[in-house]
């Protein structure tokens, strides 16, 4: 094994320490605080966060801190630590799986350069720790890891998360509709913990991961790890991921390109779309070529359109009669 830098060794030891905090309270649904209608935290989030913050402020007082559970600390240098003291709060509190983690990343400017994801109960309960440093590869429990090299999109298991942002949680449904089909990926999977899903991509157990809206602490550590394992990591527009980007797409470079092409396609035109257009149309110009093509192809929508046309003709005749 190569020797990690002092920064990476610090991140590893701090994540392991926070992991010990989490292990002691696993499965307890105590001290819940609802932040949004579909997002909560526990008192353990805060305990873990204070542990990590104290360690950073003691060792690197000039560095900034961006954390899920507290206000940001401005940096007096180019470095900022991006911290999720407990990712996967639902599996953690409900005890439904071992998919929860401590995530610690270090960013130089907007570029993540160190990433650690510590999963305290994975690997049969002994814990699983993913580590990466810029241009030094990535490892899990002391073994070098690589993304899956399978480039067949039909073999792909793709992780997909809705995030927690109000008003945007339905966006992944649009992605799923493009991915899942007769000519699509093998399956789409959700593990209720973005960091563990991304770690599974880095280690080749899953093929890809996509999300439309996550927080920086959900992704930053995993970005370094996935890149170190050979993945291409961008936002959903194809731009190389940087701190501040909300969306993410991760896969080996060739599969990434195929997924980008698939996600750029217009979703299949549905009867629901057509019926909305016809219902709201006030003139022939309101009906486009896609609408007319669907009407010709779908006998049910064609019959509905004829009934709408007849009703409108009757309404026009009644208006003329009353004049």
Give an overview in words.
It is a single chain. The protein is of the alpha+beta class and 323 residues long. The protein folds into three domains: 6-144, 2-Layer Sandwich (Fructose-1,6-Bisphosphatase, Chain A, domain 1); 153-264, D-Maltodextrin-Binding Protein, domain 2, CATH 3.40.190.80; 271-322. The chain is built from ten helices and 14 strands. The protein has helices at 6-23, 43-59, 89-94, 171-179, 194-202, 216-228, 253-264, 271-280, 289-297, 299-322, and strands at 33-36, 39-41, 64-67, 79-87, 101-108, 111-119, 128-133, 138-140, 143-144, 157-161, 187-189, 208-211, 232-234, 248-251. The protein has a seven-stranded mixed beta sheet with strand order 3-4-5-6-7-8-9, sandwiched between helices. A five-stranded mixed beta sheet has the order 11-10-12-14-13, with helices on both faces. A two-stranded antiparallel sheet has the order 1-2. A hairpin with an 8-residue loop joins strand 6 and strand 7. Helix 1 runs antiparallel to helix 2 (43-59). The longest helix has 24 residues, at 299-322. The radius of gyration is 25 Å and the shape is elongated. The chain starts with 5 loop residues before the first helix and ends with a helix. Mean pLDDT is 85; it is low at 34-40. Keywords: Hydrolase, Magnesium, Metal-binding. InterPro entries: Inositol_monoP_metal-BS, Inositol_monophosphatase-like, Inositol_monophosphatase_CS.
Short description:
The protein has helices spanning 6-23, 43-59, 89-94, 171-179, 194-202, 216-228, 253-264, 271-280, 289-297, 299-322; strands at residues 33-36, 39-41, 64-67, 79-87, 101-108, 111-119, 128-133, 138-140, 143-144, 157-161, 187-189, 208-211, 232-234, 248-251. With 323 residues, it is of the alpha+beta class. The strands form three sheets. A seven-stranded mixed β-sheet has the order 3-4-5-6-7-8-9, sandwiched between helices. Strands 11-10-12-14-13 form a five-stranded mixed β-sheet, with helices on both faces. A two-stranded antiparallel ribbon has the order 1-2.
């Amino acid at each position: 094994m190569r020797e990690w830098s002092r920064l990476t060794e610090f991140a590893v030891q701090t994540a392991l320490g926070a992991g010990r905090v989490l292990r002691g309270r696993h499965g307890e649904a105590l001290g819940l605080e609802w932040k949004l209608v579909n997002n909560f935290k526990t008192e353990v989030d805060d305990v873990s966060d204070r542990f990590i913050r104290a360690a950073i402020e003691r060792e690197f007082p000039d560095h900034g801190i961006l954390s899920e559970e507290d206000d940001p600390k401005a940096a007096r240098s180019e470095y900022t630590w991006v911290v999720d003291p407990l990712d996967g709060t639902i599996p953690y509190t409900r005890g439904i799986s071992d998919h929860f983690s401590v995530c610690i990343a270090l960013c130089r400017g907007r570029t993540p350069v160190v990433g650690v994801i510590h999963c305290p109960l994975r690997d049969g309960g002994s814990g699983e720790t993913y580590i990466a440093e810029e241009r030094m590869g990535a490892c899990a429990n002391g073994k070098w890891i690589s993304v899956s090299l399978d480039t067949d999109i039909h073999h792909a298991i793709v992780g997909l998360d809705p995030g927690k942002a109000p008003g945007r949680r339905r966006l992944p449904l649009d992605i799923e509709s493009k991915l899942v089909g007769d000519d699509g990926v093998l399956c789409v999977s959700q593990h209720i913990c973005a960091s563990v899903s991304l770690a599974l991509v880095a280690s080749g157990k899953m093929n890809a991961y996509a999300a439309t809206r996550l927080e920086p602490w959900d992704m930053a550590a995993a970005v370094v790890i996935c890149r170190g394992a050979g993945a291409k990591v961008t936002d959903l527009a194809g731009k190389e991921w940087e701190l501040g980007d909300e969306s993410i797409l991760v896969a080996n470079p060739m599969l990434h390109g195929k997924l980008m092409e698939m996600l750029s396609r217009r979703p299949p035109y549905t009867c629901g779309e057509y019926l909305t257009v016809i219902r709201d149309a006030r003139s022939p110009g309101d009906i486009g070529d896609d609408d007319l093509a669907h009407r010709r192809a779908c006998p049910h929508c064609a019959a509905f359109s004829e009934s709408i046309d007849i009703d409108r003709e009757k309404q026009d005749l009644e208006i003329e009669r009353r004049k």
